[in-house]
């Protein structure tokens, strides 16, 4: 049994034989492969045929639009044709000057022509933003080189070139210095001159003063007013020969005062403008305030004996008439209106001008008041003579900027880093002034400066020395400076300032005034006044 079972089960353990695919199936697979290959080849050929020529387009665009270059770098590059052209132009310009000086106008003309060609080529390269090629630069460089060699054959060598150019440089430097001095002089003349319309106003007012005796009588009556010496009122002093400018100061002050009837103005002018100034303040009302006008000639004590300044000016006038002035520079200094105008120096004699007063506010004629100034009289000066706004900022406007500290008399007594301050709006304690004898200090420093070695001109350096250690700083908002020269003052500073000051040459009544600030001044001018209309004020 077991043997027969084994024989029957044996086929279960045999390896099955492989079945072969029919031949027609192999044929079918082969046909599909061939057709697929043909389709692939055909599709690839079509893509190559219709592909756009990208590479050719790029190359063509590169040929049409060359790569932009930085022309500044081209000019600085030692290997560029632009640099070579520029260097040759510089040398050629020097030889043009030499050729003209030696009368060789033909060579100068030829060099100038090639220089213009070089400039034209360089400008074209700069505009197009491309590098200058050798084909463009070679003809000009060659012609310039020949002309330069020709100039050198004419003995225009490097040493001659250097000497000539140095002399030209020195001459240009001298001309530049002369132009700076001339500009300053013209600016000063423009600032100190009186416009035609303001001169017209002065003439009309003077004519009215001379033709109307009642005005003189009223002027004498005003001088007897008790208000002029009443220390319970608020007193202001102005020293000016400009009628309209003084009027603006008075008008702006009373317009912003809470009680204008309590204001008293003491105006001092010169003999020429006394009649016009008196007439103006007699025929116009300024909200009930009192205005007193004096002539500087009335102060008999202001003479050569008492004042070193008057004595010095008298001596200079005498020497000038006898030919004693030797240098133009010295003559200019003593004829500078800022120096010779005695009205500017009256600020050092306020106690003598107003002997009965205790406190007074000094105002320049180129300021405009925007706030009530009566509060100034309640400021405590702590025993000092003057209250002023300081002008120093870091190292600017300190004493060493105004005074000559190489002089021992200055360096031994004054700290060079003391903060400077401004005239133009100041409160004076006349009791402290008399106690400190500040006017005598002013005379002392004027005597020491007889040779103009301590400071040049002006009243500020003398004031810094006279009131050294006697100045009380005020809040900066009381006095804003710069409207006569600075065009960029912040509007917020102008609005918050109690007084704005047109210090500088661009006065608001001149044509060269800064237009931005002119309306601040003009709003206090009565353009409807008959005299002002007749003099064509606009």
TrEMBL record:
Pathway membership, UniProt: Glycan metabolism; pectin biosynthesis
Taxonomy of origin reads: Eukaryota, Viridiplantae, Streptophyta, Embryophyta, Tracheophyta
Q: Which CDD domains match?
A: GT8_like_1
Localized where? Golgi apparatus membrane
Q: What is this protein called?
A: Hexosyltransferase
Gene Ontology, cellular component aspect: Golgi membrane
> So which domain of life are we looking at?
Eukaryota
Q: Does the keyword Ion transport apply?
A: no
Write the gene name.
LOC123448662
């Amino acid at each position: 049994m077991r043997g027969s079972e084994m024989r029957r089960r044996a086929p279960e353990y045999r390896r099955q034989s492989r079945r072969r695919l029919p031949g027609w199936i192999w044929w079918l697979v082969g046909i599909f492969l061939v057709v697929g290959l043909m389709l692939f080849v055909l599709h690839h050929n079509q893509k190559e045929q219709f592909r756009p020529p990208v590479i050719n387009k790029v190359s063509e665009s590169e040929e049409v639009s060359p790569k932009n270059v930085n022309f500044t770098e081209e000019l600085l590059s030692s290997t560029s044709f632009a640099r070579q052209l520029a260097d040759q132009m510089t040398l050629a310009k020097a030889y043009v000057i030499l050729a003209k000086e030696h009368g060789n106008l033909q060579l100068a003309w030829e060099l100038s022509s090639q220089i213009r060609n070089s400039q034209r080529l360089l400008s074209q390269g700069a505009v197009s933003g491309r590098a200058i090629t050798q084909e463009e630069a070679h003809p000009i460089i060659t012609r310039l080189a020949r002309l330069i060699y020709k100039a050198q054959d004419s003995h225009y060598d490097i040493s001659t070139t250097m000497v000539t150019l140095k002399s030209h440089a020195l001459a240009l430097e001298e001309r530049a210095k002369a132009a700076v001095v001339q500009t300053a002089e013209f600016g000063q003349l423009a600032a100190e001159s009186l416009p035609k319309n303001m001169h017209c106003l002065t003439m009309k007012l003077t004519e009215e003063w001379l033709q109307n005796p009642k005005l003189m009588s009223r002027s004498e009556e005003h001088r007897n007013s008790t208000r002029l010496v009443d220390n319970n009122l608020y007193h202001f002093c102005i020293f000016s020969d400009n009628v309209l400018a003084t009027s603006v100061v008075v008008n702006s002050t009373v317009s912003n005062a809470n009680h204008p009837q309590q204001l008293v103005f003491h105006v001092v002018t010169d003999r020429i403008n006394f009649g016009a100034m008196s007439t103006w303040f007699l025929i116009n009302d300024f909200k009930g305030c009192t205005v007193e006008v004096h002539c500087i000639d009335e102060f008999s004590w202001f003479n050569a004996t008492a004042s070193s300044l008057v004595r010095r000016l008298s001596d200079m006038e005498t020497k000038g008439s006898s030919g004693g002035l030797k240098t133009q520079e010295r003559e200019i200094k003593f004829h500078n209106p800022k120096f010779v105008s005695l009205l500017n120096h009256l600020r050092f004699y306020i106690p003598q001008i107003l002997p009965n007063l205790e406190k007074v506010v000094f105002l320049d004629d180129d300021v405009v008041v925007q706030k009530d100034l009566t509060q100034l009289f309640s400021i405590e000066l702590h025993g000092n003579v003057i209250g002023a706004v300081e002008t120093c900022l870091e190292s600017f406007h300190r004493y060493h900027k105004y005074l000559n500290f190489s002089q021992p008399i200055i360096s031994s007594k004054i700290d060079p880093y003391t903060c400077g301050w401004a005239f133009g709006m100041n409160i004076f304690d006349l009791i402290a002034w008399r106690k400190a004898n500040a006017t005598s200090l002013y005379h002392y420093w004027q005597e020491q400066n007889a040779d103009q070695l301590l400071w040049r001109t002006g009243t500020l350096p003398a004031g810094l020395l006279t009131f050294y250690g006697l100045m009380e700083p005020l809040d900066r908002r009381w006095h804003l400076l710069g409207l006569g020269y600075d065009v960029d003052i912040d509007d917020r500073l102008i609005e918050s300032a109690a007084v704005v000051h047109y210090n500088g040459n661009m006065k608001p009544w001149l044509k060269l005034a800064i237009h931005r600030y002119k309306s601040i001044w003009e709003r206090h001018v009565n353009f409807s006044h008959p005299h002002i209309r007749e003099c064509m004020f606009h």
